């Protein structure tokens, strides 16, 4: 239904309504003229029949079942044929131009995106293509919708969009710190936004500044969206925390550690690389926990996954937000007022947002909760991607 409305708005744009009106006027006028010219002779005895003949004639179908016999009728028929050919040609041209224009606007990143619950990827850098490839590999059996927001020429995305057809990739061109551009990408209905460093910046030191500004703008437009950001400098992490970024990734954060481990413990980096590869069968996965294992132990759940060829290494849970009511009393004391004010100053509005907490290799007796999810390794085709 929503797609039908979108198509209806598309085809009713431009000059199409005017052409349709001219067609209807010519159709009705031709029908009336033929009734008067033929004087009710033969098959032109009714207005409906004459309008039917005018429609068939204007569209150049011409069944031949109705033919004017008077000179005046034939002159009118000639005029109707010429006018019909012109108006029908204008009608088809108007429809074609509307869709061609929409396709051109979409290719240039100027079209409004109608997705819901989609992923928005902001920024163009050396890992943008890698991110898209990994996303397509991780979600092989799903069909996520992705919108790329970047200030790059449309020629770059001409090959990118067909390459990632499985992601239903759309392109929005512009500065993702601007509200109008983010709204065009559908930020208010998105489920996740990913911000990458903007390598098109002439000054590399300003990459993180743009990321911070974009974070503030996105959270203002959609406070509930899950926001993942990639920054270049560790010193800027505190600013993104204050801006309510959900996850913060620092460039080359693990490079030093992996090099060090590689120097003294050969094999560990290779294992880590395979676990993080989107193409590998033995990679990290996040899977839902069967309902029958809620309130059972980690050991029991681990044994169940092991039978399926999966190794359970941890649990992940979306923590409930901390609300001011959890720590405030019923009295309106000065201390309560101070705490509430500090919540508001921190931008929490008396409630901290939800946090995803991961527990690696918990105790075997750990009880599985209803909100827990399983973090596993391996599975290949046996796992539900």
Q: How would you describe what is shown here?
A:
The chain has 385 residues and is an alpha/beta fold. The chain folds into 3 domains: 2-107, Helix Hairpins (Orthogonal Bundle); 119-253, NAD(P)-binding Rossmann-like Domain (Rossmann fold, 3-Layer(aba) Sandwich), CATH 3.40.50.720; 280-382, Alpha-Beta Plaits (2-Layer Sandwich), CATH 3.30.70. The protein is built from 13 helices and 10 strands. It has helices spanning 2-11, 16-38, 47-58, 71-107, 128-138, 154-163, 179-184, 207-221, 237-242, 255-264, 268-275, 298-307, 334-345; strands spanning 119-122, 146-150, 170-173, 192-195, 226-231, 247-250, 284-288, 311-319, 355-360, 372-377. It has a 6-stranded parallel sheet, sandwiched between helices. Strands 7-10-8-9 form a 4-stranded antiparallel sheet. α2 (16-38) packs across α3 (47-58), α2 (16-38) runs antiparallel to α4 and α3 (47-58) crosses α4 (71-107). It starts with a helix and ends in an 8-residue tail after the last strand.
């Amino acid at each position: 239904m929503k797609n039908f409305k979108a198509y209806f708005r598309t085809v009713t744009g431009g000059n199409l309504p005017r052409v349709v009106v001219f067609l209807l006027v010519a159709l009705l006028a031709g029908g009336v003229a033929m009734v008067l010219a033929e004087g009710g002779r033969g098959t032109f005895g009714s207005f409906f029949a004459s309008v039917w003949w005018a429609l068939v004639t204007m569209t150049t179908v011409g069944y031949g079942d109705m033919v004017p016999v008077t000179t005046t009728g034939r002159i009118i028929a000639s005029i109707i044929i010429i006018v019909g050919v012109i108006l029908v040609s204008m009608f088809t041209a108007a429809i074609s131009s509307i869709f061609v224009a929409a396709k051109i606007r979409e290719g240039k990143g100027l079209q409004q995106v109608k997705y819901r619950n989609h992923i928005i990827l902001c920024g163009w850098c050396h890992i943008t293509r890698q991110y898209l490839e990994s996303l397509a590999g991780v979600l092989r059996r799903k069909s996520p919708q992705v919108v790329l927001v970047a200030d790059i020429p449309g020629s770059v995305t001409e090959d990118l969009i067909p390459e990632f057809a499985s992601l239903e990739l759309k392109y929005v061109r512009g500065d993702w710190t601007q509200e109008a551009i983010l709204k065009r990408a559908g930020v208010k209905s998105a489920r996740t936004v990913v911000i990458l460093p903007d390598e098109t910046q002439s000054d590399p030191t300003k990459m993180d500044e743009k990321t911070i500004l974009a974070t503030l703008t996105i959270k203002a437009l959609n406070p509930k969206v899950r926001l993942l950001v990639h920054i270049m400098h560790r010193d800027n992490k505190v600013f993104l925390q204050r801006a309510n970024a959900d996850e913060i990734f620092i460039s080359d954060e693990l490079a030093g550690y992996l090099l060090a481990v590689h120097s003294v413990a050969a094999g560990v980096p290779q294992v880590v690389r395979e676990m993080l590869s989107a193409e590998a069968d033995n990679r990290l996965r996040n899977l839902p926990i069967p309902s029958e294992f809620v309130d059972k132990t980690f050991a029991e759940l681990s044994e169940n996954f092991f039978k399926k060829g999966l190794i359970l290494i941890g649990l992940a849970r979306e923590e409930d937000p901390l609300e001011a009511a959890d720590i405030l009393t019923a009295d309106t004391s000065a201390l309560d007022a101070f705490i509430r004010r500090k919540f508001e100053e921190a931008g929490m509005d008396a409630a901290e947002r939800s946090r995803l907490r991961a527990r690696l290799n918990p105790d075997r007796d750990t009880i599985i909760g209803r909100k827990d999810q399983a973090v596993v390794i391996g599975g290949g085709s046996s796992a539900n991607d």
